[in-house]
């Protein structure tokens, strides 16, 4: 999982964590997060999202790419 603190509408430097199968994850409001991506085998994810009006997706593209390794 990749997350980043918010800095007035822009993500700060990302931080990556490994998760285990069957683990639940809850993001706090205003925490940027990357898409869930399996590293080895195909995986299934269950995502529970909010309901309501307004934008539910905001993308940010960093000037320089980050490489996530294990």
What does the overall shape look like? Answer: globular
Overall strand count: 3
If you average the pLDDT, what whole number results?
87
Terminal residue distance: 12 Å
- Structural class given helices, strands, pairing? mainly beta
Q: Residue ranges: pLDDT <50 for 5 or more in a row?
A: none
* Assembly state (oligomeric): single chain
Give the biggest beta sheet: 3 strands, antiparallel
Count of separate structural domains:
1
Give the spatial strand order of the biggest sheet. Answer: 2-1-3
Number of helices: 0
Strand content: 5-15%
Rg (C-alpha, Å): 13 Å
- H-E order: EEE
Percentage of helical residues? under 10%
3D structure, described in words:
The protein has 70 residues and is mainly beta. It has one domain. It is 0% helix and 13% strand. It has a three-stranded antiparallel beta sheet, with no helix packed on it. The radius of gyration is 13 Å and the shape is globular. The two termini are 12 Å apart. The model has no long low-confidence stretch (mean pLDDT 87).
Topology readout:
Blueprint: E1 2-5, E2 15-16, E3 31-33
Keywords:
single chain, 0% helix, 3-stranded antiparallel sheet, 3 strands, mainly beta, 70 residues
Condensed summary:
The protein has 70 residues and is an all-beta fold.
